[in-house]
Amino acid sequence: MMPYPATGFADCCSYRSLTHVTEYPNSGYSAPPGRVAAVPRVLQSTFYKKLRSALAEARSQAGLTQEDVAEKLGRPQSFVSKYESGERRLDVLEFVEVCQALGVLPTELLSGILA
After folding, report:
1. 3-state DSSP assignment of residue 84
2. Measuring CA to CA, which residue among 42, 22, 18 is closest to residue 30?
3. Integer Cα distance of 101 and 115 in angstroms
4. Each residue of 47-88: pLDDT tens digit?
């Protein structure tokens, strides 16, 4: 088996765990076959906690409520609540859409986290 490429997320997931899971596409969760989906460890990683905090802070600085952001995204308010609280992860495209709704550049938000 090939090792998982170094991405800075090695502390929260492994190649094996990513290839032997059942996906729940509408929820952002995955679990081994026959098991109830649990919150993936990546959502509890230090990096993801910083990302969630940065997104919530950017929303606050823009003077937007969760409802405002959800409306811009065409999603329910619970979508925003769940990614800010760590119940749901954002994929890359969703992250870019959220940044656009907040009026921040994705690269600037990430550079603040990685600094």
Report:
1. helix
2. 22
3. 23
4. 889 999 999 999 999 999 999 999 999 999 999 999 999 999
Give the chain's end-to-end CA distance (angstroms, integer): 33
| Model pLDDT, residue 104 | 96
User: What pTM was estimated for this model as a whole?
Assistant: 0.64
Residue 16 has, within 13 A of its CA and on its CB side, a CA count of 1
Separation of alpha carbons 26 and 5, rounded Å: 26
- Distances in whole angstroms, Cα of residue 56 to Cα of each of 48, 50, 52, 98, 110: 12, 10, 6, 11, 13
CB 31 within 8 A of CB 17: no
Give CA–CA dist 3/59, Å, rounded: 37
Using a pLDDT cut of 90, give the percent of the chain over it. 52
The amino acid occupying position 93 is L
Structure tokens at 97: 């859409």
Which residues fall within 8 angstroms of residue 49, CB to CB, at 6 or more apart?
86
Cα-based distances in Å from 52 to 1, 5, 32: 33, 24, 26
